[in-house]
Amino acid sequence: MSTDSLFRPFNLKSLSIKNRIVMAPMTRSFSPDGIPTDAVATYYQKRAEGEVGLILSEGTVIDRVSSSNDANIPHFYGEKSLAGWKKVIDGVHAAGGSMAPQIWHMGIMDNHASGWVPSQPFEGPSGLNRPDFNNGNTMTEKDIEDTIIAYGKAAADAKRLGFDSVEIHGAHGYLIDQFFWEGTNLRTDGYGGKTLAERSRFGIEVVKEVRKQVGEDFAVIIRLSQWKPSAYTSQLAKTPQEMEAWLNPLADAGVDIFHCSQRRFWEPEFEDSDLNFAGWAKKITGKSTITVGSVGLTGEFLAAFGGESSDPSSLDELLRRMDRGDFDLVAVGRPLLADPSWVKKIKEGRTDELKGFSKEALAALIID
Ligand SMILES: Cc1cc2nc3c(=O)[nH]c(=O)nc-3n(C[C@H](O)[C@H](O)[C@H](O)COP(=O)(O)O)c2cc1C
Q1: Would you say residue 368 lies in a domain?
Q2: Whose CA is nearest to atom 22 of ligand 1?
Q3: Which of 162, 201, 253, 265 gets the highest tally of CB atoms within 10 A of its CB?
Q4: Residues 278-289 pLDDT 10s
Q5: Counting Cβ atoms within 10 Å, is residue 190 exposed (0-12), middle (13-18) or buried (19+)?
Q6: Atom 10 (ligand 1): residue with closest C-alpha?
Q7: Phi, psi for residue 100 in degrees, rounded to 5
Q8: If the chain, 368 residues long, is cut into consecutive pieces of 10 residues, what is the mean pLDDT of each piece?
Q9: CATH number, domain containing residue 289
Q10: Ligand 1 test: best mutation among 21, 26, 343, most atoms within 8 Å of CB?
Q11: Going by CA atoms, what residue is nearest to atom 29 of ligand 1?
């Protein structure tokens, strides 16, 4: 099947991308004290040279004392960290690429295996990471207000440094998702509630503040997931109607692109339709969407953390859905960890040279 539809340009506000392929955000923990090193800049520049259309950075945390559980995860605040990020974006632009940082607050976390902990307890809607596990503080309204401001500040810094867009991490069981989920949001004030729509208030206010800080013309992406690591099969929105009540207010608040995280892009979201999450998000909101999840690989990514390898697989089903108009952009994770030239190889039909994924790709910043 022709891959031409992956190689059409995409333009939206501040984004001007040469093809439809997005590097998925992937935490690498190679930024000691939260500062991206020159090696990190080279790693991203190599993906731009390899013709990735839009690079999403690994999650990079906002300016809250306990926004991270790992000293090697990059900050998106502070002079030294932002100087590191400036080198990253300049290198990506020099190679003809585009990039957005994924701004992140982890919320309530498990303590990291390294033993490092932030100087204040983790913070979240109700102190919970999952229904049976409390490991931090319940945020006060003042904490919430300050955190929303910190997301906005990070977005403003992204624009100031020259990034092409910004992605808000609202997925995978971290802070914003902890507000969305009834299992971790037990609040009885205006940030809680029985319905997903009510529990979306925090996420909506984050989007509004980000929009306010970057202006109308800067593309804002939000990453969302139905699942979380502590509940793979859970669904925040159990029906299309619930999904409408969740996504439309986020769109109204200022989201331009919904990045719909699935572990396997071909899995339908609801009964009686083969549409995936990105397909439904586009149909409901009319906004652009990004799909993701095992594109071009045989196995899914959480198994990869357990050491499982994956082989290259066909793109035909992806292209069928894309040509039908289900989504605009396609994010690719593990193939790009292992091979900075993955996109080029797809474009040139060099499929016999694709590497697949093995756990060694997690251990280093591979640059060739
Ligand atoms: C090493 C690694 C780190 C990841 N870190 C993040 C992250 O920081 N933020 C995020 O939203 N997703 C993260 N993910 C999920 C990926 O963005 C992506 O959704 C997932 O790997 C599925 O895509 P794939 O099947 O193409 O690998 C990570 C995945 C991997 C493999």
Answers
A1: no
A2: 293
A3: 265
A4: 999 999 999 999
A5: exposed
A6: 25
A7: -130, 135
A8: 94 98 98 98 98 98 98 98 98 98 98 97 98 97 98 98 98 98 98 98 98 98 96 94 98 98 97 97 98 92 83 93 97 95 95 89 94
A9: 3.20.20.70
A10: 26
A11: 26
**Would you state the pLDDT for residue 303?**
82
* Residue 293 Cβ contacting ligand 1 at under 6 Å: yes
Residue 206 lies in a domain: yes
Using the mean position of ligand 1's atoms as its centre, give its distance from the Cα of residue 286 in Å.
Answer: 25
Q: Contact 165/211 with Cβ under 8 angstroms?
A: no
The answer to whether 43 is a known catalytic residue is: no
- β-pairing, 133-134 vs 21-23, is unpaired
Out of 21, 22, 27, 168, mutate this one to test ligand 1's pocket (max ligand atoms within 8 Å of CB): namely 27
Looking at the 3D structure of the chain, how many domains does it have? 1
Its domain, for residue 10, covers 4-363
Alpha-carbon distance of 43 to 265, in angstroms, equals 26
Strand partners, 16: 11
Question: Active site residue: 43, 44, 151, 174, which one?
Answer: 174
Residue 304 beta carbon below 6 angstroms from any ligand 1 atom: yes
Q: For residue 333, how far is its CA from the centre of ligand 1 (angstroms)? A: 6
Q: Which of ligand 1's atoms lies nearest the C-alpha of 169?
A: 11
The response to whether residue 26 sits with its C-beta less than 6 Å from ligand 1 reads yes
- Answer yes or no: is 124 within a domain: yes
Report the distance separating Cα 76 and Cα 109, nearest Å.
Answer: 19
Residues 6+ apart with CB under 8 A from 160: none
The reported pLDDT for the residue numbered 46 is 98
316 is a domain residue: yes
